[in-house]
Amino acid sequence: MLHPPETTTVPAIPLLNMSNHVTTRVLAGITVPHTPLITKALTYARKHLSDSAYNHVVRSWLFGHVIASKIPDFQMHDEELHAVAAILHDLGWDKTGELVSKDKRFEIDGANAARDFISREGEMKDWDNHRLQLAWDAIALHTTGSIALHKEIEVRICCIGIITDFTGPEKSPGGVLTRGVWDAIVEQFPRPGFVKDVVDTLCGLCRNKPETTYDNFVADFGLAYVEGYNLKGNRLIDILEAAK
User: Fold this and answer.
1) Measured CA distances, 218 to 165, 188, 214 (Å)
2) In terms of C-beta distances under 8 Å and separation of at least 24 residues, what long-range contacts does 126-134 make, across chains too?
3) The whole model's pTM is what?
4) What are the beta bridge partners of residue 26?
């Protein structure tokens, strides 16, 4: 559960399209930006995600925030954009089904839903097309580190925070996320059943819309766990050979 925010106004790293002074709050001992849109994003994620997925997206935000604060090249970034993208990055796993398409990868469902949310709830004077696109890219590419880690800082930080929730603090860039910080975050946003829930969710994608999984890592879960799931005929090599 989220604790009531401890808020204060302090000088902060300059944010794109935002004041040099932002309100902050403390979560799991981490001082993070506290804006109306971030609060709305947390509420929206809470509505649409399971307990396990909600804790995952908040951990991903906090891990990314801490890592960015320790790496000089990452410190000048749009903290609100990173927060909102990280918090909303798994809307493609929406438990209500309202945000899930029949024909798109879950990352695209999440990116589209987040863009719609920001357009509806954000101050549009602060969200030009470029900033919206960065949020969309951060979510759409969060499972494709080989691309995301070569894009803008906010996209990279979002991807790194999410990856770290799967790999642990020792594999954070330069090992800058300590085990003590990790443990404090996990204590407030725990991980029981997280791995099982991820496997169940990805297997569900393989069963319910397999055509969105053939060209990406989700196929690995279908091949390992889903009876009848088969890539034959759907691989690029199959398509090329059929076109001879």
Assistant:
1) 18, 29, 8
2) 126/17, 126/18, 127/17, 128/17, 131/16, 131/17, 131/78, 131/81, 134/78, 134/81, 134/85
3) 0.90
4) 31
Share of residues in the chain with pLDDT > 90 (%):
84
Q: Rounded distance, CA 199 to CA 50, Å?
A: 14
Report which of 120, 235, 64 is spatially closest to residue 56, judged by C-alpha positions: 64
pLDDT band at 47 (very low <50, low <70, confident <90, very high): very high
Domains, the chain: 8-191 (1.10.3210), 193-244 (no CATH)
Residue 206: C-alpha distances to residues 55, 166, 242 (Å): 24, 21, 24
Average pLDDT over residues 209-235: 95
The residues with which 144 forms a beta bridge, in sequence order, are none
Alpha carbons 17 and 108: distance in angstroms, whole number:
26
Q: Are 229 and 210 in contact (CB under 8 A)?
A: yes
| Residue 27, strand partner residues | 30
